[in-house]
Amino acid sequence: MPDRRSPARRLRPVLLLAPLVVLPLLLDSFSLYQATMILIYVTAIIGLDIVFGRAGVLSVAQAVFIGIGAYTAAWMSRTTAVSIGVELIVAAVIAGLAAILVGLPALRVSGLRLAILTFAFVELFQWVVTTFASVTGGTQGLLVNPGGFGTITTADPLVGYGLAAVIALLATWLVIRLQRNPIGRSMAAVKNSNLLAESAGVSTVRTKLTAFMLSGMLGGLAGVVLAHVSGSVTPAGFTVFSSLNLLVALILGGTGRVHGAWLGAAYVVLMPELFARLGIPNAYPIVNGAVLMLLLVVMPGGIASVLDRIRDRVRRRGDPPSPLLTSVPGRSPS
Amino acid sequence: MSELSLLIGGAATGGVYALLLAGILVIYQVSKAVNFGHGQFGMIAAFFSWYLYQQLGLNPVVAILLSVLTAVVVAVLFDALVLQRTSDRQVGSDLVATLGLLLLATAIAESVLGGRTQSYLTLGSRTVFDLGGLALNLSDLVTITVALLSVLGLSIVRRRTRVGAMLNAVAENRAVAESLGIPSARVRVATWALAAILASVAGILVASRTSVDAYYMTPFAMKAFIAGILGGLNRFGLPLAFAFGLGIYESFVVYLLGAQAVTPAVFTLIIVVLAFAPRSYLSEGREARA
Amino acid sequence: MATDKAGRPPAVLEVRDICVTVNGVRALGGVSFDVPEGSLFGLIGPNGAGKTTIMNVISAVITPQQGSVRFRGEELTGTGTVARVRAGILRSFQQVRLLEGMTVLDNLLLGRERFRVVGLLRQIGGSRTGRRQARRDLAVVEEVAAVLGLSDLLHRDVQDLPFGVRRLVDVGRAFAAEPDLLLLDEPAAGLDVTSRRLLLEAIKQAQRTTGATVMLVEHDVDMVRRACGESVVLSNGEVLARGTPAEVLADPAVLRAYFGRSDA
User: Are C113 and C107 in contact (CB under 8 A)?
Assistant: First the structure.
């Protein structure tokens, strides 16, 4: 397709990226840590969005994939001297394979039972981590050594930030690529109706497995950075409720939309902090529960859809309706 | 006679799964939603009754009745105010809403209890009597009896009574049922109330054997869901049989291989069923008409 | 488009002795017919005659208890929906199913899925084969859109379109797949008379341009008379008559089945 983008639209990525580069230089160390966490969550939530927002399979296993990435990084940082690049690749592969495993029941059962089974997989992960304590540290968890490339390590918060930013941008690029791409379309078809997908020649099983694999890989990458930035891993960080928090973030931000994951990530990192400062830290999980329960009733498309609607309203001014819309077949009164 | 006591202990656990699953099934069949928060109805009942008799000093019987009523009100309100208003357009929004219920109920209990566990009325779980060398726990027997009676009662109601016929009609096709003059909204309220009562009974029975905290029902709800997956959410008798069977299976696995083996053993069961059951058994029969 | 009985083209689809029982109720009891290559084939019958069921059998949405379906001489029994779509058997639905929230263009491009060969990594990263295919997909889709009168609507969200246009998009997706055999399940259902004619013309034109064999399922006799060549009449899960529309409509058995009922 010829590139019809206007100069203003070409400039947009630069304008959006600039704060990412400038911000770390202005922030104090705690805010930098929070910015890093937001970027880590962006990656993890985009992963969840691929499976739930794009392919329509509800999964509460996303925390498992983050956990696999985090434990892989923890274990490798303690036993090997490889660069963090190797850790990322290994974690992405392992988490991707685990995700395919989680999605495998799709071969035999529909989306509903698949969703329930993702629950069971979180249980399995918790069991593995607490049972094989000699490797995982059991319920105590593991301390994570700083990782990096040679002398540049995550002991420097800026390195952690940079790494998280690069991976978050990679994930964002991936999901933008998916959007108008045959794979994204087949996911949308599977989400809409299995019957529609299959009658267009889309294999629903393969599409669901692809979605799970991509989400798992992104979860794994996020987990590696999370482990290094936070310095320790414990099984309590990767429960069903951790997954539910990611789901809250995704749905609040807006499923199936690129900026939805960014907004959601900002929410899960900044909200607990806000409630803590207001002196009501207990309110955060309660608000999360209420949001998850009510949001699809009150605001089905999340914050992103509200922003989209405002943008559309601004843009559509003066755009005449297509004449064909009035002359083409209409619904008969029945 | 250790096999028999294993069987009884397992059947009691399975009975708890069955009480939860029975509610999950009627809700799924009538409201077409999987209630991920179902176990928390039981938690609400147990937690609230604990609060009433322990903190406010109410008579335990009154406390339990009031708390079951509370669980019923929560369930009915959740269906009316949340679930019925989720849009069909967004895939999985019903699942998300029930996950929200799970998260919200857990978070509230957690913030009140502050992560501590509270001991509950024993209700016979410490009473053991000897029957010819066989140690029987009163609570086990009560649980099995209550679960069996509930399941049998429910199936009789479904098959033999007018209410059951209405329930089946709404489950089959709501639009058709409504055109026949069946008050589907009232049927829906009834199923949620019934499901909440069954979950409350399960929650109180479990609490009497262990203790109360925000999370204690989650593993039980999890197993109820697994039994539902294995038996089929669109059926009734088979998944409930799976619920009892799963409890007995677990109890034998614990005895033979140790408590650590339960999770992988349950997974093995899931894999075996999913891999070898015929496709027609596993299909949910949605989207039938093109 | 009358076919000479002697020199008729070879059958693209041979349906033989299909029996389907749903929940103990017989839906199809030994249905057999041939669909000639390149024709606009009519499948007529009152509601509940088993028309959608036979389409579900052909597209492997359901498995018949008995009987066989052959496509271009090859046995299809045992293959799944996706395999049949990839072989060139496409269908539309009575109830319109679209990619909600996406554009008309995306919906038409979904029809091109059956030609996809490029793998995941190259699909995301971009490759020459992928780009070449994307160009061809776009060309075909734009042509189909032009024939169906959807060209100006390509970038509209299908959710915003009226019902009749959504129907066109559904049919267009199937045509974009360059089908060898296209099964259209009551494409005109729910449309008013004018819209029906417009839709029918669009389908006929698309069929002429692509050369596809089209099997049109209808219960509206008038529409079949206007459009179809050879036709088969189903009633109560059995073939009642076959021939040109004029022939079958003159058949007393058809008249009884049809006009003896209120829904004709």
Answer: no
